[in-house]
Amino acid sequence: MPPPHPGPTTAPAWFQSVRYLAARLIRSMSSRVATFLVIAVIALLFFSSVLFSGSSSNDIYYPGNSSVHQVANRAHLTEAAFHPAALHHTYRTFVRLLIPLVPIILSRACWWSTDILDSTSDDQAYNPDPLALLEQRRPMRHSYQELYRLPSKFMLNEDGTAPVTVIINPQDFGDSLSRQIHALMGQTDQPQAIWIAVAEDQDITAAEDIVSSFNGDIEQAPEDDPEERLVEDEDDENDENDSNQRVKMRVFAKSDPWWGIARQASSEFFLLLENGVIPGEGYLGTLLRLAHTPEYSRALLGSHGAVLLTAPDQDDILDGDVDIKCLPEKDSHGQVRATEMVDALTDIWFGRTETLELLTLEPWGSTGKAPLSIYLSTLLRYHGSIPSIVVANDPKNLATWGDVRKKDHPPAFCTTIRQLYHENGAWQAWIERGRALVSQHERLAIVTIFLASHDEAILLKDLICRWSLSPDISIHVAVAGAARKLGPKDFARLLPSEGCHVGIYDMRLAYVPPNPTALQSARLVADSSVTAFHLISSLRPKVMFYLQEPDSVFTEGIMIAQARSKVPAVALKPEDIEHVGWLPDLPIQALQNWNTPEVKLVVITNNRPGSCIRLLRSLTHAHYLNDRVSLTLNMDAEADRVTLQMASSFQWDFGDKFLRHRVRRGGLMLAVVEAWYPQGNDEYAVLLEDDVEVSPLFYVWIKYNILKYRYSPDNSLYQRMFGISMYSQKFVETHLAGRSPFNPEDIFIETPEYELRTPFLLQLPCSWGAVYFPEHWREFHEYVADRLLDIEWNKTSLQSVQIPNSRTNRWSNSWKKLFIEMIYMRGYVMLYPNFFNFTSFSTNHLEWGTHTKQQRNSAGTFLVPLMTNSERLLDDLPNRRLPDWDSLPVLDLWANLATSAELIKRGRALQEQLNPCLLRNSKNEVVWEGQERDLKCAKTQPYYSTHTTPMPKTTAAPAIETMTISTIEADPMNPSSITAYGILPLPTPTPSVDDYDVDDAPAPSQRKSPVSSPTPF
Hints:
Elements: H1 13-28, H2 31-51, H3 66-71, H4 77-81, H5 84-98, H6 102-110, H7 112-120, H8 130-135, H9 144-149, E1 162-168, H10 175-185, E2 191-199, H11 205-216, H12 234-244, E3 247-252, E4 269-273, H13 283-291, E5 300-302, E6 305-308, H14 314-319, E7 324-327, E8 340-342, E9 344-345, E10 348-352, H15 372-384, E11 388-390, H16 413-423, H17 426-432, H18 438-441, E12 445-451, H19 454-468, E13 473-479, H20 488-494, E14 502-506, H21 518-539, E15 543-547, H22 553-565, E16 569-572, H23 588-592, E17 598-605, H24 609-620, E18 630-635, H25 641-649, E19 657-661, H26 667-673, E20 683-689, E21 692-694, H27 698-710, E22 721-725, E23 731-732, E24 740-741, H28 744-748, E25 760-762, E26 770-772, H29 774-792, H30 815-826, E27 829-832, E28 842-844, H31 853-857, H32 859-862, H33 870-876, E29 890-891, E30 897-898, H34 900-914, H35 965-969, H36 1004-1008
Parallel strand pairs: 1-2, 1-4, 2-3, 5-11, 12-13, 12-15, 13-14, 15-16, 17-18, 17-20, 18-19, 22-27, 25-29
Antiparallel strand pairs: 4-10, 6-7, 6-9, 8-11, 20-26, 21-28, 22-26, 23-24, 25-27, 29-30
Helix pairs in contact: 2-6, 21-22, 29-30, 30-34
């Protein structure tokens, strides 16, 4: 036998790589395959042992045995390949490769039963795609066994080392440092480099001795075939010798932190160890595997940490009474049962080297030289959304522990962290500035803002600062980079020194030439999209925000990244920024639904082209916040040629345009009712008569209210709000005595609980500019259909609807009359603005043709000033924001203060009188659950349960002629074979002018016309 080689030997790089690849393959295979592989390995070992049981020790093949080399000559190559000694050597190499894999195979096989249980459970299979994590972020709590099963993409370097640089901070250069280096050199996955941090004022002689002793022990394993050893040149030999110098010293300045040298590392990862930390032999491999999983790829990992359960006040800090949870816990004997996010790591820090660049945003010296345990965790979490996580370990296997000393010596860093509050105020200052702790971190929703230029930064800086003060939102800003004159420091200088908590990221995009070629533009767009997508994948924002500028490669790249990540985006034009100062008031759920509402503009016109073109011009001057808004022009049968030509030629640049022209005159009521029917619950309609004029900010007011009250987390509270008015009500027309002036100031000035300029809820629809909600408008359609049928067929179910003490009972042929009936019985309300001097987002000119001459003379009474200043819009609102739902005052049909409960009670009382079919309990009380929308008896609904319509009792001119199948088969020349179906016109008594609503009074030409208005299709 050849003599053993002196000193420790290291397996060849190819051998380690093969063994690693085999281990990765086994870890990725299913437990069933691993079980069968175990059986195959056992059978192979048994067969091999039988095969070589007769071989003597003299037949064993050794690389250095000259007799065997004589056999393996070129003439007898085939015979030597099957020589028993050669086969035995191959067998020994196979066993050396296989033995380390046996525990891995067995561990995979042991999970067979667990895999079966998992496959039959209701839990969805984990998707390792990082994009899936954007929609559903899994909690970072895994036991060690669960960590072991996470899919990982970890690979060793080509030389068989792990891509990590270890930096040790020794207090002395004695036995403690030697034990640390021994532990690191004995890792299953050995680090690429080990650096000893030495201050410039320390004696480095002892450190040099330790470094040289460890570097001298590293020797290369002998080659299998000395005759085939390649002759290397002198440069290659020098490079190999340098690579063997794995343990090195790194000197740092006395004024700098010891861990600052980690930024000099060329490896992908860094590992910082405090003095005396002895990691288990498998600990580094565990960290590396976790760093290549989707869950922990951007995390700062360690083994010891602390969670500050509640934000301490000043008294707690001074008294030292701070509620802290330490990991490992005091009585756990060093065991960490599951991974957990912490506020600070101590002793051990493992992460990606590139993340250390975030520390330049707040240099260590500017924080008062905060301790590493606080500084590193806080800044990476705040500026990079990088959590600090304590990794679970196996209590039965010290090789998985970060510090094997903790088994016998429980950590005392809880006391140390409490002392940090007294000795260093950095953490206190960060908490006071709103930097969330781990206990608050999961409640914060991240909004990422992308800035392309210095001009955009100046335009958005004030909005960003106000946004950063939102209690439930964390703002992170990504800047294009210094090449585009907007680096992190450039943007930081634009922000105020206090009151702005923003994380800043450098995208480091390339310079954009003035006139880039098509190829250059494509590369710049790709660079922007890839960088933005990686940042989105890292931060996992709930919403992203950017400015959409034409012909911008940055904008195009951000749009591609947004489409790929599917994160909701708020994309505005630069000119819209001054009108969205209310963005910080919206909850994250509303921001996520920024693009969900679909607003349609519906204009109702007839033969007043001058009035209509004034309305259309005001619509084109409005700010639509980069949304696409459709426009529909509804024209009655009497529309003149000028109106038709104007509607056809009008250019609408903000969305689709639709034209509708009736062939039979329907009047104002049917023109309004049939103007819109919603397709879904996210479609909204702004109903505008042609004598209305709108403010440039009308859409801003609508968008703000819809997002605030329709897409907030507690939107169920707002189900009784049927719309939002753009007009400030100056009169109330429902009093029996007639129209009376109304000013909400008179009410709120005597009610201290309400602000003078607060918007309010009024139980009255507005026809001079308002947005209506889809659910309520569909309900209104059903109600109008029932009311018209009741009137025509002389039914009594809803015919006698009489709202107590309401002038609307005398209105005739009015859509508002029917709408008020419905909202009174349902307790619905509309939100109205309340700005100074009745400033509104729409006004009415009371044009001739819809109202009487007397009403035309009083047109100025209904005119109100239009809102044109976005700052005034916010300044007049209480606290510069829309009030919460519970803070809105409620006014009834007569503009008297009430409550929602009172309105519901009044409506149900009237509903009980009209609908005797309501189900009641044993106490003769109506069971309203499930019956609130039953405004009529089920017995009065034969029209919807049959396929034919009964003939009316009287005859009239049909509105539409319908031919049945039998009619088509009949003789077309025989008029008696054609059946006409129609609906009788509404009875039209001759009321006085006082009985009309000012919005719906018929024109003089309509009152004098002898032709009745048939009910259209």
